[in-house]
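Below is how a single chain appears once it has passed through the pipeline. First comes the sequence as given, then the structure the pipeline wrote out for it. We keep one example in the README because the format questions we get most often are answered faster by looking than by reading.
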Amino acid sequence: MNKSVYIHYLSLVTPLGNTVEQHLEAFKTGTSGIRMTEHAGFQGTRLPLAKRTEITANRYDNLLREALENVHITLTGKTAVIVSSTKGNLDLLPGDTFSSTHAIINQFFPEAPVVIISNACISGVIAINTAADYLLSDTYDQVLVIGIDAVSEFVSYGFQSLFALSGEACKPFDKNRNGTTLGEGCGIVLVSNQKLHDHAVVYKGGSSSNDANHISGPSRTGEGLVRSIEKTFKRSGLNASDIDFISAHGTATVFNDEMESIAFGRTQLNEVPLNSMKGYFGHTLGAAGILETIMSIVSMEENLLFPNIGFSETGTSVPLNIIQKLESKELKTVLKTASGFGGGNASLILQKEG
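Resulting structure:
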């Protein structure tokens, strides 16, 4: 890329707190936001969930407002807002689940057009890639990217019907993993053609690919993720030897984690330090790519590798370098990946400037 694109984190609201500093402390101490919740699933099933206990009604709208209130920046020039979410505000069914999204954002940023990206669990990474493409094509000068999803019975029942939920906190990449854990949160980043503050990294490139394997199951060969990673390497001018850390998708389902291990092996990334952040704030669906990108930037700033909560024994056919304890390491370049229903896969690379 001839132009520079910067990513700045602005807001992060999950069960672990409502500031980035609170999340850093939780990650440093290995604190999880997942708690056993009564009557959370179909027929009153008890489920582990990562929910904001402060929110008792209209979870989606309250998450969005809380995160936007933490944003202290003036949008200037040609500016747009992208919202990454799987379902929006399900309280509005059978109407438009994104109608309240537009209304709330217009209260905070009345002049900015709002674009919705809803592509299962790769939505967040695709949203950042799309924002960067807007800048590189001179369509906009800056794009506010919001990742948000809230826990709902609709979603938990759906994942239960697929036998994809664990009865305990998820264990990404572990031999004894048996499903994912749902979470909720809202994260906001600013993608800009200028570096506006110190909490910024350079976006080096990103891409997406679809393996068209199954509506809910990933390719057994990791083909879609391999293609996305290889395309991202080509666009960024980097390769596997340049990557210091991988923020993987790591849902803790048997098929997802196995697929990722194969893909990382095929792309010579299996020895790179890697974690999944799902053990901290659960699987936040359309928000996951944004939340995990924010904490990846924090990891780079602090030069800290955060442990993969729940991992104790290799559970994939291709052994990975799973981070098991808090570790100091000079981090310059990070690969973020995501995979989702419908065969979607996406990736992006971030790098410190200089």
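The chain has a mean pLDDT of 94.

See the next section for the split statistics.
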